[in-house]
Amino acid sequence: MATAQTRTLARTMMAPAVIVLLLWMAVPLAMTIWFSFQNYSLINPLMTGFAGWANYEYVIGDPSFTQSLINTLILVGGVLLITVIGGIFLALLLDQPLWGQGLLRIVVISPFFVMPPVAALIWKNGFMHPGYGMLGHLWKFFGLQPVDWFNQYPLFSVVVIVAWQWLPFATLIFLTALQSLSEEQREAAEMDGANAINRFWYIIMPHMARSVTIVILIQTIFLLGIFAEIRVTTGGGPGYASTNIAFLVFRTGILSNDIGAGSAGGVVAVIIANIVAIFLMRAVGKNLDA
Amino acid sequence: MARNVSTPTKVGFTIAAWAVALLLFAPILWTLLTAFKTESEAIASSPTFLPQNFTLENFAAVQERSDYFKHAFNSIVVSVGSTLLGLIIGVPAAWAMAFAPTKRTKDILMWMLSTKMMPAVGVLIPIYLIFRDLRLLDTVHGLTIIMTLINLPIIIWMLYTYFKEIPVDILEAARMDGAELWNEIVHVLVPMAVPGIASTLLLNVILAWNEAFWTITLTSGRAGTLTAFISSFSSPQGLFLAKLSAASLLAIAPILLLGWFSQKQLVRGLTFGAVK
Amino acid sequence: MKLTPILMGAFTLALAGTASAQTLTIATVNNGDMIRMQGLSSAFTDETGIDLNWVVLEENTLRQNVTTDIATNGGQYDVMTIGTYEAPIWAKQGWLVPLDGLSADAAYDVDDLLPAIRGGLSLDGKLYAAPFYGESSMVMYRKDLMEKAGLTMPDAPTWEFIGEAARAMTDRDNDINGICLRGKAGWGENMAFLTAMSNSFGARWFDEDWKPQFDQPEWKATLDTYLSLMNDAGPAGASSNGFNENLTLFQQGKCGMWIDATVAASFVTGPDSTVADQVGFALAPDNGLGKRGNWLWAWSLAIPTSSQNTEAAEKFINWATNKDYLATVAAEEGWASVPPGTRTSLYENADYQAAAPFAKMTLESINSADPTNPTVKPVPYVGVQFVAIPEFAGIATNIGQLFSAALAGQMSADDALAQAQDAATRDMTRAGYIK
Q1: Chain C contact set for A42 (CB, 8 A)
Q2: Which residues does chain C have within 8 Å of residue A150's beta carbon, measured at their own beta carbons?
Q3: Assuming Cys at both sites, which of A238, A270, B162, C277 could form a disulfide with C408, CB separation 3.0 to 4.6 Å?
Q4: Which CATH superfamily is domain C22-128+297-355 in?
Q5: Rounded to two decimals, what is the model's pTM?
């Protein structure tokens, strides 16, 4: 079917998307790379000229660089862990015969519609604040000292907030996948006398593998750049305890107005993202081939 | 779905599911309740569940301080506009990738996704400079363009996975019948693709609505969206929790309602090819 | 059918509106006084026909947006709200329009501006930003709790007395903390407080050769005193408390003392406060070294050179910072709500003195801050709670994180100081101050 004519047609149809995305990627990236080799401070016009590798040395030499790398991985990994495992359980639960299916689904999906700064503000002020947050009241109710979440468990708190936002997304994808598991397959398994655990491991899990892959892939893309939640809640701290790569770039580039170093950080972040992406593709890519 | 289970089991599952669901919903519910409390009640050391002095003054104060409807209007224009623009560019591309795949199709798809991995904070200054020179700062169309570019990879990927589900035989049968390309698209492809396109549209409206970096940095008042609206209510001087809750509620309400009403459509499509 | 003329009328009005009126875009912080200004600004539009487009943002977001815009010459704003830190630096870059019109306007009376504030907003004798409200810092305390502890607050306390009083007032069972201080990381948050405090301990940021001084005993004494005070008598979770969080705590009666901005005085004695009638004021503490730990700041309005509407912008700034504006606020909300700390005449006004019990202490605090000579030893920089160099914001943001971590108990004071010294040295070397 792939005649020369269709191939030309296909190319023409893809052209706008490819060109637009190519520009979107190449122009800012080229400018960022250019800036990363310049002395460029937003507020100090005296800093000019070619910088060589100085900006890269500066960013990689930042005392928080290693920690922010680790934090990035913990953040991505932690949220993935919670959303994938929690999502599978929740999807299995919602797949059971229940009263109020439709309403339940509406309630469960809701956190996904909340914009990140609002989610962070709600959690920060309404929930995790040791003085007047709901969790604080709850702790006091049980006679415990309220936990100061963002100071005692900064990274964990951020993971919780982000996981809260993404759990519905994972749940819904898993639920769709579960519901496409044909009735015959389930019944056959039940007939064979397979117990619930065996059914889960040998029938359901293999069927879900593909949707797990998709969830991991999509979420990783978004999670690598988590920024609003950190900025609103912990500001990367205390110390560097919740600084990830995106926040480090923000701190060097924007807060310190050092565009040269910020750009170098941006380039480093792109490289890291691509390493993660390649790794991810290797690990899960075969699941994607239909 | 019509599996037969005993009533006690069903009761058990129902209770468990609702417990988890309400736990997930609690932050939103708490915000909803706080929005109708007075400021002092909102941070009282002995908390109340339902507002004791039900008040609408928070909403009045919020509206007086920044024009909710202007921001909401901008949010609607940007999210709907960018999604439509994205579909115009994305549908042909996804169609071509699904029906005339080459060896490189998968790579192109992955490359498109990888454009989403650039950290926004890293390219702020380049984009700001470009926007300044193109006179796009603080314009709704400038924001629309950015949102389109950000979400285009997701749009193409979602559409691609739907289009691939459409059996090629049907298209070929139509082609054999001598149908023109245009007819092929209008009469065969479109009806089959509509659910997919609809859910792509919904998801991208949601993603664009909730984007909170570019919408805040590239606007100043005229083109500000609801994310900028929210930014003026976080931690001012004095008591603010109730007003912040009211503003938060206003900011998420439209998209929450849209999501709730179109939930079936969205969920049906939210697979990204996760289901074979 | 009856609707048609109305619609037509509205349409013509709308057209006329867009055709003739000028629009100013004003970026400001979401603090109470600015929100009040926004509320009153329709009077300005009625008077001049100039429309206002308000961008009211949370402080950090505002600062980032405004800095990005002015540094790239973006031209998004006509009036920007900036502080005493930015004003001289930006003026020096040629980014701000000098407010010569205000200086020439006799009714505006530029000589009425408090000299310390005016000096901080000027470069080479020219005014580049008009102060909207000014502040220093002072001690606010609960008279009832102080009495209960059997102590009397002097007008000019020492750190030793503050420490003693804070520990004596602390009553954990009743959720009363002897002292509330800023702990939230940020150059305008904990670092503003700690830098001002360090001055009274004789510490300085840099020596005459721009070498960071965090490895010196004065800084160690400052941080140790701060940490032990907060551990013994501070509220839980203090490392995320900024101005606003402490304000809330104080208003709810959970703080015995609070050392912070003088503008807070009208809030803690205002209608939102549960302890309004029990608040006393004192000067910021000292250590007998001749310097007090009080700062100097003014939120001010300035015009970026990228603005296309500089004339209208200056008109607006005149309206928002002149004597009539103070009178308008007083008429609408009472004298206590007037933006403080900018004009000598306000402090000579008998009505104001009667309505604002904190007026005298505020003026004294502002007048005692000396930006050109902030600490005991000589320094190469200007600024009390900041160092007026472009690199300061970045360095202090970093160090603020470290000190906040020390308060949260995540690192020791010595580690925090050592890392601060390293970070400051690294950045100052990079910026070329240290050869």
Answers
A1: 67-68, 71-72
A2: 237, 240
A3: A238
A4: Periplasmic binding protein-like II (3.40.190.10)
A5: 0.86
